[in-house]
Amino acid sequence: MAAPVKSPGPVKSPGHVVAPGIGGVGDSPLRPDGTLKVAGEFAYASDLWMDGMLWGATLRSPHPRARIRSIDIGPALATPGVHAVLTHEDVPGRKVYGEDHTEDQPVLAIGEVRHQGEPVAVVAADHPEIARRAMERIAVDYEVLEPITDPRAVIADPERLKVQARGGITRHQPVRVGDVDAARAHAEVVVSEEFSVGIQDQAFLGPEAGLAIPAEDGGVDLYVSTQWMHNDLSQIAPCLGLDESQVHMTLAGVGGAFGGREDLSVQIHAAMLALHTGKPVKMSYNRYESFFGHVHRHPAWMRYEYGATADGKLVYADVEIILDGGAYTSSTRNVTGNAASLGVGPYEIPNIKIDAYGVYTNNPPCGAMRGFGAVQACFAYESMMDKLGAACGLSPVEIRRRNAVSQGSRLATGQVIESPAPLAEMLARLEAMPMPPACDPSDIRNLPGGASQTTHGEGVVRGVGYGVGIKNICFSEGFDDLATARVRLEVIGGEPTALVHTAAAEVGQGLVTVQAQVARTELGVQKVTIAPADNRVGDAGSSSASRQSYMSGGAVKTACEAVRAELLARAARRYGHDDLSAVGGKIVSRTAGVLGSIEDVLGDDAIEETREFHHRPTTGMDPVTGQGVTHTQLALCVHRAVVDVDVDLGLVKVVEMAAVQDVGKILNRLSLEGQIHGGSAQGLGLAVMEEIVVSGGLVRNPSFTDYLIPTILDMPPMRLDILENPDPDAPYGLRGAGEPPTLSSTPAIVAAVRDATGRALTRVPVRPEHIITAGVSG
């Protein structure tokens, strides 16, 4: 995946992958990129290089909101070694872009900046340091304006703040089921609470980077780390004033994504500079700039009220969810829809009122991140289940069991639950798992604070908590989700070989391995090559929404089926049998045994087929009631967390996490377990450490020194119970698995800390002061 590419392309770029070893669907072949990554030899986008290339840099606004009176680029342009300084006046095409046809984000600021870090100008120079120095010489005269930073104020008075906050409310999505007011009058137990979730960053290790090279057709060759090339393409080409056929995109090595690469970063800027100078231009953010160069998880403010019978059966839910989308739309509309449709989780509630809002402010732009709206709601509804259980005198598991959805139950949107394992059974399996042993304080590494020796066991209390999450898989609300695959079967070196070509982004999740497994299974060959992902083949959709195994896996499967059908048709004509299959490179008849080989049938010819795969259709949410069959597939994960808490210092050590998840069908157990571990780690981060701190619209901690993410020392051992309940509508019956663990791990950990401390803990991440200071919830 990291073979060099000679000029005129970049020296380093992902090449063809020959998936090693034997492994079809259900096996766990090793990842072809794994050794390279572990050894530090994998070529990421930031490693791209080409002789004679220039370096690009971006001047960004220091203010969350300001009017631009003037920009003087003269001193920067006069700097020796500088080849170009561009502002919005130099954008050759459309000056704005955005996801989902929401073109509201300027390529470069036009008259006003609406968040800290908004791009104002770009520079190209012979050396990155020259580019940075020139950037500092651009003189921008700002009239600083008062930023809108409280999304709740926007909800309270959207019209007054509409102009200031770039539109007020992005989306209001209500959900209405039954009669909440009538149900409230008859509820025997009522609990309510307000919750908030801080801004989480995707914290991928590979910074945003790309290389743009002027092409002979007047267009541009763009090598970039992204999650969705064709979505990028639809935004890039109009801004460059080019036809989409003139933008030649190739996926560069991606060092993690988690939603943060769905929005554009360097793509248009690098391409503008390359086209303007006629030279290759590389742009690569440092870590500080990366915090401003991509969207983050939406912070949320949530008000919940639940009513139940005395024995704990839910009778109504009254919910308000406010999501801060920041300065521009990005994916806020879809995140709001997800939060609304999954806002009360996998529980049967006959009367529901939900109001979910996505709001514009002058805070950092927020968009897609693993869990996509469902994470925020899950923290709130799971905290409410614990609170309701305590009010009814029921255990955390029992209150969930009494209200759990099962086959045939309906979500808040009216969508019928199909196929997943019964939640009550999953809870029982989780509760039956062994508990970890008691803490051994003789080794201080086992204690909160670890080797810092803050304690030797004094004031350390153990707690146990549970969390349940339900997540939609694939795109929702009527989106015609599709993926395309081209498969070619031919004989190379005397051996039948399959070449699989998609535009699907390998972002670290193991998709390259799964595509090869599918091809081996469907074609009966062992040698499978995965072509570099680029836009010479049709759209594969985004590497997000836990959808690529389902969608691109389905596309590869469908294309392979077409290739196999043609292969066997040729074999039938050759051998005079029609009861044929391809097994281990051989053509086999059920009645006559082995007749020959794939090589004999193909000869010097090849079979190539391209196919699109679509999942079953969905509908939008009714704008008044929120009803609709909005999701393709649903997946459940349940977590149990065990923590030790130093209640005097507010330090938390997560001792163990256990999870039960239904995945439909295991395609690759090794990769699957990695996804569950990884999702749980991100949930742990949100629970107790990860937050972008914003004050007055300004980011206070844009570095990994001050923005803390879990390390190997923070991640505890995990017990996994993986269930397989096939989905009849999905390829191989699989159920997307990457996101659900992110949902349920956070509330489970916080519940465990509550159990240890007795604190309400209504905000994540939980900070030491929330634990040690009475009355403080965040």
Task: Describe the protein.
- By secondary structure, the chain is an alpha+beta fold.
- Strands 4-8-2-15-12-13-14 form a 7-stranded mixed β-sheet, with helices on both faces.
- Helix 11 (396-403) runs antiparallel to helix 12 (423-432).
- The radius of gyration is 27 Å and the shape is globular.
- This is Xanthine dehydrogenase subunit D.
Beginning-to-end CA distance, first to last residue: 45 Å
Mean pLDDT equals 94
Helix vs. strand class: alpha+beta
Summarize the biggest pleated sheet: 7 strands, mixed
Number of strands: 32
Strand order of the largest sheet: 4-8-2-15-12-13-14
Quick one: overall form? globular
Strand content: 25-35%
> Helical region count?
18
Helical proportion, percent range: 25-40%
Rg for CA atoms:
27 Å
Uncertain residue segments: 1-21
Provide keyphrases for this structure.
single chain, 778 residues, alpha+beta, six-stranded mixed sheet, disordered N terminus, Ald_Oxase/Xan_DH_a/b_sf, Xanthine dehydrogenase subunit D
SSE topology sketch:
Elements: E1 17-18, H1 34-38, E2 54-60, E3 66-72, H2 74-77, E4 82-86, E5 96-97, E6 105-106, E7 112-113, E8 119-125, H3 128-136, E9 139-144, H4 151-156, E10 169-177, H5 180-186, E11 189-197, E12 209-214, E13 220-224, H6 229-240, E14 247-251, H7 267-277, E15 281-284, H8 287-293, E16 300-308, E17 314-326, H9 332-341, E18 352-360, H10 374-392, H11 396-403, H12 423-432, E19 460-473, E20 482-492, E21 495-501, H13 511-523, E22 527-530, H14 548-575, E23 580-583, E24 586-589, E25 593-597, H15 598-602, E26 607-614, E27 633-646, E28 651-662, H16 669-688, E29 694-695, E30 698-699, E31 718-723, H17 740-757, E32 763-764, H18 768-772
Parallel strand pairs: 2-15, 11-32, 13-14, 17-18, 21-22, 28-31
Antiparallel strand pairs: 1-22, 2-8, 3-7, 3-9, 4-8, 5-6, 10-18, 11-16, 12-13, 12-15, 16-17, 19-27, 20-21, 20-26, 23-24, 24-25, 27-28, 29-30
Helix pairs in contact: 6-7, 9-10, 10-11, 10-17, 11-12, 13-14, 16-17
